[in-house]
């Protein structure tokens, strides 16, 4: 079986007096862990390459954290090359423009300080090199090109002079005509007219051919003080991107001029310009220039002592960014460990009179907590004492950074916080209700982190009466949330989606897994049931953090939490205000996993109430109700179907056709969860379900169409061959094939459609035959095109872009679905194609997901048409052997499974290949902490190898028999288990001494069978009775007395021993 892959309290100022710092020896390092909830059903967020930010003159998202506290131009449009994701770009409507502050969630230093990645761009297009947009000359019609110099002058000619401290000055003056032209371009670039924007983009790109173009940019930023700030800042940000893309090609004179101008202007009177200069400095530093700019850090640290506020703040801003971006090298011998000086210096500024400076100081030190930097650990008590002194700071940004520091210290220096934990918890309770939501959010992270610590239950138990109401209150939508979510818009189904509304989707490669008696298909843990109700606000906010904290605390305290929750729920769920009612439904969903047992007595009343809420007049209530009901789907399915399942299914299907797109999305996701739980319980209602899902094809906009594919694919996985009826096929396939034909090979909407078709093909089996040939051929073509593009990119990376290999992965997985569904019927398609040659290349690809999917396909083709696979076995087996590396779990898992399938087909001819794989397999099955799925597949493959080549495998029996037996005792009776046990029995007959020490484990594994085939039962009897006869009745009695009673009874009843 396969699966896809509130308010500040008046006495906070007294907090400092609550703490005193104890000194204890350092404790061992703790691993960093972060709570950031992945959003979106069925989205497997792989880490991708660095975001494609477009052209040279792109402002990237890393600037936004630094600039967001500074004024920027507000506008409703922006040039495409100013790809700022979280702040409005720089636009000038008129000379005296209106400057506003646009505060938005951004990729702040919080994530970076915790070691988390910067968020990927939402762009889904192919990645381009920064130079790829150079397409037009600088001069437009009727305008001559500025006389910029083609080559930088040599250092001797450029008037560089050195003083005794080797400080260099670069005497460069701009050509006035060229300067005016660049200024004109910068102003035109702020036009809302997209045609003008494109023209300017081309001209600015062309200017990169001139080495001293960057001199003009730094000149505009630092020397043209008469120019408006947005234009100056924009010039600096374009320069910053040039540094990122081409810094290694800058002539030395240009580099030195830029560095000198940056340091001379770090104290500019404009906060916006200071921020831009700081970004430029840190970008240069991140290009490896910390080593080549030895006076940078000493100079910035000395500027901290300046009596001029602007200079101090500008230097601190730059240092903060350097600490964020270059933390690792700062804590290395490469720079002679400057943190030994810098961290004590930063600590001195915790008591500075300026809140901005205090905030910078804390933020700088925070960068080194998670890594347990030695320079900080030496001053840890001073650091914590200073943090406590800032606990009641009037500046929100300082309070936020204090909270952030305490959260991280909770992870790595619990020993230092433990003596003060009561007061810290009380403080965090206050801050979680802070009027500034950013402070409240940072404080709310504390509960998530604390929940991971073993001390959590004891530390928080007496604070629960205060904490739970605070978290519940944080789960209400704020007024601004409702505005951003367009909560007053109830019907929007006819409004097309904008492309930025659609998250990039990445494919999850197929993973082979065994079936289990207790839980159906063993699935990878995913995030499908995470809170996914307000993704348009931000990826992470106070509402979501509060709900996630309640969720994890429910898992810590289980039913002990209910006395604190139930009185609140009773009031919330039946409240007349929809916002309050909605938050109550969210609370009910958040506690579902942890408090399920304690909630069961209330569910017969709550589930019907929730089903009624699916018809609430407010769309946001309907959508969150879908999610909460999905969290209780397992209980619903465990009851008689007419009681809850049928009415829930009926109402969810109505909501799938809701007039609100958010409700459609939530209903589709909830229904997919219900499908997974109900499985064949849905078979009587298939016609009604398919009728609704197919109708949704004509109703849905782009985004929800992708989620609809997931619901259909999950239905196919859940009901299997019951879908293979002519009337169902005729309903389902035409709209799917219509979408299939509409999409181009380069369209990423193919991913969810191909995933869906893979599940449908597997379920329909022969019912998919009329559609298989064009689908098969397109998949082969997708693989071939991707491999060809990859070869071109490898040979000439400057001329050819790297392909998006997800197209190849998803095509391989659909081919697997076809092979599994069609079985032998795929033979002629394989015979007429070059799929085995392509698969051979895919099996050697550098990308693990490609290898993972190719091994799954190999196993499925081995089962379906081995006559075509067999001639390639000599080439395939060495590759399979080298991929038995458990560091790549899914690759190793699928390679292991494929080896097992091949061995069954090869029989005794498998003998030459045993040495290539056996030792690795034995090592894997004995490896600690190996995932269950990999253990099970490894055990089955070892058993199968022993079945076909017992003489070669049996000598190693004693090395794997115990983990082998424990791995397979819980999987269902099936053909794979059957062949594996035949193998172990055969090996025992060859090497009986190999099982003697662990015979009780073999007995337990045999007893796991519900209904073995007669000849396999006879093999079990022969071994059991043989062992009993050999040791004698008395020894057997003493031996079997060690058995648990159920095991003893089962062996006696089934095998007479």
UniProtKB/TrEMBL annotation:
Stretches for region Disordered: 20-44, 108-158, 506-533
Principal location listed in the UniProt entry: cytoplasm
Span of domain Importin N-terminal: 200-268
Compositional bias (Acidic residues): 519-533
Biological process according to GO: protein import into nucleus
GO molecular function: small GTPase binding
Basic and acidic residues composition-biased segments: 24-34
Compartments in which it is found: Cytoplasm; Nucleus
Gene3D superfamilies: Leucine-rich Repeat Variant
Keywords: Cytoplasm, Nucleus, Protein transport, Repeat, Transport
Pfam family, one: HEAT_EZ
GO cellular component: cytoplasm; nuclear lumen
Similarity comment: family membership: Belongs to the importin beta family. Importin beta-2 subfamily.
Protein name per UniProt: Transportin-1
